[in-house]
């Protein structure tokens, strides 16, 4: 197994989302950590990741399941869902160039939309799956 591509994949996803006009038109920022100070009313956060070995005779590889979240202070889900659609459009099937390894494929897996407990905030957690090689 190779976990070596994980930072390259995260950087490529971050760059794709923070550089996508459809995403940036709808959110106040894309963050790898919680925003410092008062967060924008709607933003994107890169979240947890689970990695499984997918190596074979031809080389090292892995399957990365990672979460991209939309967090919104809006009263309803509409603006969060619009941002989630833009994120899905930006990432699903994207041909990301990695600084290490190679992206074989990137797919949308599922999404969960919910109210944040104890607040009026809305949250959509989207799970994506990336298959990478580290040759």
UniProtKB/TrEMBL annotation:
InterPro entries: Gp17-like, Viral_Tail_Comp_sf. It comes from the Bacteria. This is Gene transfer agent protein. It comes from Thalassovita gelatinovora (Thalassobius gelatinovorus).
């Amino acid at each position: 197994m190779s976990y070596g591509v994980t930072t390259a994949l995260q950087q490529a996803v971050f760059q794709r989302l923070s550089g996508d006009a459809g995403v940036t038109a709808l959110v106040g920022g894309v963050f790898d950590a919680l925003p410092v100070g008062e967060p924008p009313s709607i933003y994107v956060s890169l979240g947890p990741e689970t990695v499984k070995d997918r190596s074979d005779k031809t080389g090292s590889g892995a399957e990365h399941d990672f979460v991209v979240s939309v967090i919104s202070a809006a009263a309803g889900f509409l603006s969060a869902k619009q941002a989630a659609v833009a994120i899905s459009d930006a990432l699903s099937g994207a041909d990301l160039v990695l600084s290490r390894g190679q992206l074989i494929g990137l797919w949308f897996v599922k999404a969960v939309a919910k109210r944040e407990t104890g607040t009026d905030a809305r949250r959509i957690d989207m799970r994506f799956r990336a298959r990478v090689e580290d040759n």
